[in-house]
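The material for today's practical consists of a large collection of protein records. Read left to right, the backbone structure tokens trace the chain's path through space. An example says more than a description, so a record of this kind follows:
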Amino acid sequence: MMDANITLMLREATTAEGQLHSPHYLKTVTELGDGSKVYAIRDICSTKGVKLLPSGAQVNSSIYQRLLHHKLAPKLDDCLETEEGVNNHTLVEEANSLIDSDDSLLRMRNEMADENMLFDILTKIPLKPGLAFKLTVMRAKREELFKRSLYVTLVAIYIGVQSRLNEQQLVKLATAALLHDIGLLHVEPKMLELSYRMTKEERQHLYAHPITAWMILQEEPEYANEVAEAVLHHHERLDGSGYPQGLAGEVISQYGQIIAMAEVVASHFGKDDTHHQLMRLETILKLNSRRYGRNLIGHLKVFYAGNVTHPQITEEDKQLVRQSLNVFADVLKSWESMRERFAANNLGTFINERMQALKIEALDAGLNPYALENNLQNATDSEASAELNILLDEIIWQIKGIFQESRRRWPKIDQGTSSLAAEDVPAWISTVENRMSQAY
């Protein structure tokens, strides 16, 4: 398994290296100049010494082709400035606006002994000019990504305070949280649209973005190693189910664990049905305690305790719950009938580990997959029915995630290559996927 992880990391590091020099970020930067004043503060040259743009020149989409086929030195971000760029003062202003528009963040701030702590930490984040420019590009061209990064930063600071981090540690944590998704600026924008269906090859770019961000920070020695490490780790999970390295337990940095937890919170807010999102967050945290850690989850009650309302459940909803229960039970039964045969190879062992963990998590969350009627009988009121519905949605999503991760680690899984695994493992995955596609 370790050799497979090393191979995987090398492949995704190659993808990340390609992202750094991909045209997507260059196109975004030059297009920014079409609506704002972006100008060179030093000569922009190729690594071969060819001057491509003189200091003082304005940057817009008309120079995209001129820069496209060159590696630049210094880096593009270090050569450019724009009016009204992101700085510590604007971060505080943006954070204030975000808090005022979000009841959960407002409640979080009011829970803090020092309500100004959030802003004090933001003012201390070290913003090197090149990274400040990158954040400016994010705010102007990928506004939702910028707002979510700031949301994650605020929640991470709160969790850090609750975890008794000192001020120096909080600044490092906040810096990593603010920069954790800068790698996504180098991914083709259409891939990040909610409606876009990624191919298996395109998904590799998503998996590589923490490495891309880490590589960017490696070129900024002023930032502490803990900052780059946290950025690299923010998609790792305590149970080993994350990426890009598949790390587990305390090998994952503390800051990386906190940012991962803050991302879960941020992903459930800024949406219309706030009460439903609060309930969804609470239910999902119950199912994922082994992934994120009970100690961190315990700090998040401020986001949902006493604030959850439960929608009325219709007969159609109840039918969907029954359908999802049957799908989950069928998947578990088919897996348990095959688990001994799966244990003969690495892919099968991986499936066994993940399915066993999911079964335990479901039981911990109060869902017994072996007693379907009991689950339905217990879900007689709106609260219980709504929680069961959300829980099952998350379980089905996690099963799909297990298969995605299988394809990430074993890219030839769909080719039926016997050297990868016994043929019954890919066949089982295909059967389960067909069962789920028929149900949903």
User: Anything to note?
Assistant: The two ends are 33 Å apart (CA to CA). Residues 417-421 have pLDDT under 50 and may be disordered. The longest helix spans residues 315-342. The first strand starts at residue 38 and ends at 40.
